[in-house]
Amino acid sequence: MEDVAMNDRREPTIEELRRFPLLSGLDEPGAARALAKARAVSVERGETLFRQGDPARRIWLCRTGQLKLYRLSDAGQEKIIAIINPGRSFAEATLFMPRRVYPVHCAALKPSELVGFDADDLVESLRDDPAACFRLLGTLSMRMHEKIDQIESLALQNAHLRVAHYLLDEYRKQGEPETFRLEASKKHIAGLLAVQPETFSRSLTALQRAGALDVDARVITVTDAHRLERAARGALDS
């Protein structure tokens, strides 16, 4: 699918290449080779970059816009696995698969630009660079722990706790600002948390009534971080 989206937008840069842990340590010839085989890609809102089972010919860096990684159940129900924002790389794990295919679907939530790095070429480079392999494994390990936390949340927490935990996590990841903006629409965040959009909205209202935060569209103002922490632990009195 991604080959259809190839275009002549701004060429990939060395700065973008260095955002990949496995590419950041390449020597000058290796970096030049990776950039020569990289391609700029654009996808419109709602357009598919790749589908589950497609050959994984490239790993990706989101330059602008926003995308979702998702799976579909046999009944066609969508489960969002991750929301990809600018600066985030994805699909690196496919480099280690015996049969290199994408394990999820990827579609644009907003008009997006990406940089795709040639997977076959990177595999050849990794064979000669153990340090790059360890950097990549470190990145994949961190993401695995993120997914374990997500699975634990889905399995052990009710919907309201998931919402509170998600907001607390976003608050901390962004440096605990008084105000921050949700990374995606409420509908797509609800999908990420496996709750209905109506439930997500009710949870926001409950947290607002409890004095933990204020909500203005997608802007969250944390009015009492301690109350938000207690809500994420299920210890906040109603």
TrEMBL record:
GO terms for cellular component: cytosol. Keywords: DNA-binding, Transcription, Transcription regulation. The keyword Transcription applies. One of its GO terms (molecular function) is DNA binding. Residues 157-226 form the HTH crp-type domain. SUPFAM superfamilies: cAMP-binding domain-like, Winged helix' DNA-binding domain. Gene3D superfamilies: Jelly Rolls, Winged helix-like DNA-binding domain superfamily/Winged helix DNA-binding domain. Residues 22-118 form the Cyclic nucleotide-binding domain. The keyword Transcription regulation applies. This is Crp/Fnr family transcriptional regulator. It comes from Wenzhouxiangella sediminis. The lineage of its organism: Bacteria, Pseudomonadati, Pseudomonadota, Gammaproteobacteria, Chromatiales.
